[in-house]
Write a structure and sequence with these properties.
Elements lengths: L1 E5 L3 H10 L6 E6 L10 E2 L3 H4 L6 E4 L7 H10 L3 E4 L2 H18 L3 E2 L10 H9 L4 E7 L2 H13 L3 H10 L8 H4 L2 H15 L1 E5 L2 E2 L7 H9 L2 E11 L5 E11 L11 E8 L3 E8 L3 H16 L11 E4 L6 E2 L1 E6 L8 E7 L2 E6 L2 E2 H13 L5 E5 L2
Parallel strand pairs: 1-2, 1-4, 2-3, 4-5, 5-6, 8-14, 9-11, 11-20
Antiparallel strand pairs: 7-10, 7-12, 10-11, 12-13, 15-19, 16-18, 16-20, 17-18
Helix pairs in contact: 1-11, 3-4, 4-9, 5-9, 6-7
This protein binds L-homoserine.
Length: about 375
């Protein structure tokens, strides 16, 4: 199967290299933006890919939604299988692109868009065929895990470790998507679509790690807890999907605590299988390229469309789940929280709240920040 590659950045280069040695696959043309066509295998025109009868499949690793969406659709309409690592694309346009793939009888797979090298969506999609998935989630962003691990294990500086993560090829072109939690949110949206046939697009709550300070890290140490950026999705007690991303404090006994460097831990709970946990490198050239190659091998084995046919967009229910929170905020504002425990340090207070809903905590933090308050919060799992 001859494979064209759209995009020749960190992941595109890894895919191209792996294609040279993969069973049943061979590299085709690489589409790059004009001005970067400095090698014979590179082209700058999508028609050079869609109009080439020798090309059987297309890998889309451009990132962003345009021109990725229109080029992906053009490839599908030209009868090419498409494998993508682009979570922004699938979160925004997945159902429509999957419908085009079905219409054309070609594959549309996106394992590499969630979990990097961890074979998560592939297994989740298989499990959802025969078992009822109850929840999905885990550590789904390699950049922030690398940063949090370095800050907590060796007191590294936030700006310095973010730069390291960029140099190592873990971060997005715009790393604010990593540190704000948006990248992990897009990934949990895809996991919900595959698990529940529901793509949540509203009512989503995201908190990143931008407001984390060394003093917060010191407090976590005193509580014997470790901070990870965790994404969760599931079906709440009212039967609606919930999905959120937030810093989360976990005890030493939690599997998430052992996740180091750029690793991800992705899990699902199914009614019959119980809890399934998968771990591996969640970001970087070859971990992500290897997930793309596995999807291409799945295409050779006859796999078609990963997004379920009945998948619909829904509003998520932020009241469908809750837990206690750690909140660091100005001491004068503690009356705004249901305080379970409190520690004051001059003008600053560190509070452990009683259990509140995800919606309540994220809405309250947004309201206090709108009034000028500087704060950080993290869910507590235990
Ligand atoms: N920037 C992403 C991460 C890349 O750090 O997880 C893999 O999706």
């Amino acid at each position: 199967m001859k494979v064209a590659v759209l995009g020749f950045g960190t992941v595109g280069q890894g895919v191209y290299e792996m294609l040279q040695h993969a069973n049943g696959l061979e590299p085709g043309p690489v589409l790059v933006r004009p001005g970067k066509d400095d090698a014979p295998f590179k082209v700058t025109d999508i028609e050079a890919v869609t109009g080439d009868p020798a090309v059987d499949a297309v890998v889309e690793v451009l990132g962003g939604t345009e021109p990725a969406r229109s080029w992906t659709e053009a490839a599908l309409r030209a009868g090419k299988h498409v494998v993508t690592a682009n979570k922004a694309l699938v979160a925004a346009h997945g159902p429509e692109l999957a419908a085009v793939a079905r219409e054309q009888g070609v594959a549309f797979l996106f394992s590499a868009a969630c979990g990097g090298g961890v074979p998560f969506l592939h297994n989740l999609a298989l499990a959802a065929q025969s078992d009822r998935i109850l929840s999905v989630g885990g550590i789904l962003n390699g950049t922030t895990n690398y940063m949090l691990d370095a800050m907590q294990s060796r007191g590294a500086d936030y700006a310095a470790v973010l730069k390291d993560a960029q140099t190592l090829g873990y971060a997005e072109a715009d790393p604010s998507a990593d540190v704000s939690g948006l990248d992990a949110l897009r990934k949990i949206m895809l996991a919900c679509a595959v698990a529940f046939e529901k793509l949540p697009t509203e009512g989503l709550y995201t908190e990143g790690i931008e407001d984390l300070t060394p003093a917060d890290v010191q407090s976590f140490r005193q509580m014997d807890l470790t901070c990870r950026l965790v994404a969760r999705g599931g079906i709440g007690p009212r039967g609606a999907v919930f999905a959120f991303v937030e810093p989360t404090l976990v005890p030493a006994s939690a599997a998430e605590c052992a996740v180091k460097d750029n690793y991800n831990l992705a899990r699902y709970e199914a009614e019959r299988a119980g809890d399934i946990v998968l771990m591996g490198q969640g970001a970087g050239r070859f971990p992500t390229a290897s997930a793309v190659l596995r999807d291409l091998s799945d295409v050779l084995c006859g796999q078609r469309v990963m997004m379920p046919a009945g998948c619909v967009r829904v509003a998520a229910d932020g009241e469908g789940c809750g837990h206690p929170y750690y909140v660091r905020l100005p001491a004068e504002l503690t009356g705004q929280l249901p305080v379970d425990r409190i520690q004051k340090d001059g003008d600053t207070a560190r509070v452990v709240t009683s259990s509140v809903t995800v919606k309540w905590m994220h809405d309250t933090a947004a309201r206090l920040r709108a009034q000028g308050a500087k704060l950080f919060f993290a869910g507590i799992e235990g």
